[in-house]
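From: lab user (bench 3)
To: helpdesk
Subject: output format question, protein + tetrahydrodeoxyuridine

Hello, I'm new to running complex predictions and I'm not sure whether the block I got back is the full result or only part of it. Here's what I submitted:
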Amino acid sequence: MPPVLTLLPAPLRRQLERLARSAAKRSYSPYSGFRVGAAVLGGSGKIHAGANVENASYGLCNCAERTAIFSAIAAGETSIAAVVVYTPTAKASSPCGACRQVINEFGPGALVISICNTQDRLEAPLSQLLPAAFGPAHLLRRK
Ligand code: THU
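Helpdesk reply: Thanks, we reran it on our side. This is the complete output you should expect:
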């Protein structure tokens, strides 16, 4: 099996990273001040971007990854091949637990890449970030 790092062609990877960075500019994050951008590669080959959208009722804040994934699914995607998340920080931050679960729904084999304002980066398949995940198949196992 090839290492995860080689799974995405470099031009596509660069495009995903560029779109994740520019999506962060559209973040609505007046409460945390933490701008996050995400770009999702759908099974169709199209890229869908999103940013975190916060709310005065804090529990309703939506992460950038989920904004991008929901937008991809609403645009007609049925699967997700890769997710790139950008944070304007010195260290890369990987998706929160809720986002990992949502990625699993549409891309259990997705590649997840986190980038930031330095060369620091994280790169792992979703299966490594969310081992033994609960997913759609479990609901089919009811008696
Ligand atoms: N956030 C994301 O957009 N993605 C993550 O994976 C973690 C956190 C957002 C949610 C909230 O708007 C802000 O970052 C602070 O938690």
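A quick orientation on your result: The chain has a mean pLDDT of 95. Let us know if anything else is unclear.
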